[in-house]
Specification:
two-stranded antiparallel ribbon; 268 residues; 8 strands; alpha/beta; 51% helix
Length: 268
């Protein structure tokens, strides 16, 4: 019996927080240029630094733009348009992002799809203009490149990242080309639906199924689906999750907490 691994990308294979934060600042300047009047490089550095702390709440890339603006409103009272920024802390964002996000999107009159398109365009432009620095703002976690190169298991990428960016990073950083039909990126549907598709394919019958993710909320969504009871679920401890989430996951029998070194061994 063989093994099939469905792997999240950001926070499991790749630490992209540097790139996504810098891209979000670039995109925020395009979307809300007036907000950045008088914002110096020191404040921009502070925003990027805070973005590393709030990264665990991000499910889809465009949310990085919202977080950049929210952090800016937290720091500069005069530009506030949202009712939630006053007195808000990083801990408050980590605890309440699912409630905060719809409020700020309504108050700022923003829609998901235009933000996704803008974030993708800013990344495309950076990638096209200066591939080396775009790639350099990302890093694969230690051992991941070799694990993918020498994997004896069947590997799929299941991510909310746009597929073209995951593909470019795998090629440039890992020297690995994963066929496009094995990369399920943004727009291919919720991860639970992708897992259902994968387990139904005739060539996957009889394989042991493994899903490695760094977002606890995503794993909990899988657990809610009886159809997906056959999947072994893993929370990558090295990814974008908090101590509190890891402690919660430890109390859920379906979820195995995974160390990076064990992950690399498993794939091989």
């Amino acid at each position: 019996m063989g093994d099939l691994y469905a792997l999240d990308f950001d926070g499991v294979l790749c630490d992209s927080c540097g790139e996504s934060s810098l891209s979000a600042v670039k995109a925020a300047k395009v979307r809300w240029p007036g907000l950045f009047d008088g914002v110096d490089s020191k404040l921009e550095d502070w925003i990027v630094d805070q973005m590393f702390k709030v990264r665990p709440v991000v499910e889809t890339g465009y949310e990085n733009l919202l977080l950049v603006r929210l952090l800016l409103e937290m720091r500069i009272p005069s530009i506030r348009k949202s009712s939630v920024a006053e007195g808000l802390t990083v801990e408050g964002i980590l605890e309440n992002w699912s409630k905060l996000k719809p409020v700020i999107m309504e108050e700022w009159d923003e829609k998901r799809d235009p933000l996704i398109d803008l974030f993708g365009k800013v990344r495309d432009d950076w990638l096209e203009d200066d591939l080396a620095t775009w790639i350099g703002a990302n890093r694969l976690y230690p051992g991941v490149a070799d694990a993918l190169k020498f994997a004896s298991s069947k590997v799929y990428i299941v991510t909310t990242k746009q597929s073209r960016f995951a593909d470019a990073l795998l090629r440039e950083l890992a020297g690995v080309t994963i066929p496009s039909e094995r990369i399920y990126g943004l727009g291919t549907g919720p991860k639970v639906e992708v897992l259902k598709q994968l387990q139904k394919l005739p060539e996957h019958q009889g394989l042991r199924l493994h899903f490695v993710e760094d977002r606890l909320a995503t794993l909990k969504n899988v657990i809610k689906e009886p159809e997906l009871d056959g999947w072994n679920l893993y929370l990558g401890k090295w990814g974008y999750n908090t101590q509190k989430e890891r402690e919660e996951a430890a109390g859920i029998s379906r979820i195995q907490l995974l160390e990076l070194s064990d992950f690399s061994k498993k794939l091989k």
